[in-house]
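anyone seen this seq b4? input:
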Amino acid sequence: MSAKNGGRKKKADGISGVISENRRARYDYQIEDTFEAGLVLRGTEVKSLRLGKANLAHAYVQLDQAEAHLINADIPEYHAGNRFNHKATQPRKLLLHRREISKLAAAVQRAGATVVPLKLYFNDYGIAKLLIGLGTGRKKADKRDNEKRRDWQRDKARLMRERG
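predicted toks r here
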């Protein structure tokens, strides 16, 4: 057993498995900072995640009294969970350091920022993690400018490939 990783075995391939990604969040919000948070999950929730079933489309993070909760994230019931199954959209506690929670809460209070879930994945040790972002909402014009810039970058890359 190694003291560095707490006795956990690291996966040999080193590939972290993305379960669900909230791509709409990066379109709607200008993400300024990201944090990795653990999740408090029940056994059937983990089994459902291992099957790759989760949806972060309508989820958001709520901060209250030195705690953070993931609200409205859809982790469907595990098909073989019988009476031990979980509710699909129940609130789930996020595991963050106290200073990270206070930093997020201060940014939400002061700057009117929003905390949005970006990606749900398994890390190298097989533990479910949630990448959350601190962002500000984009206006419609900002979204159009961002889309134009992305299209131009794609066209420029294609032209450079064609020219050699």
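The chain has four helices and seven strands. The beta strands are 17-21, 29-39, 60-64, 67-71, 92-95, 114-122, 128-137. kinda curious what u guys think
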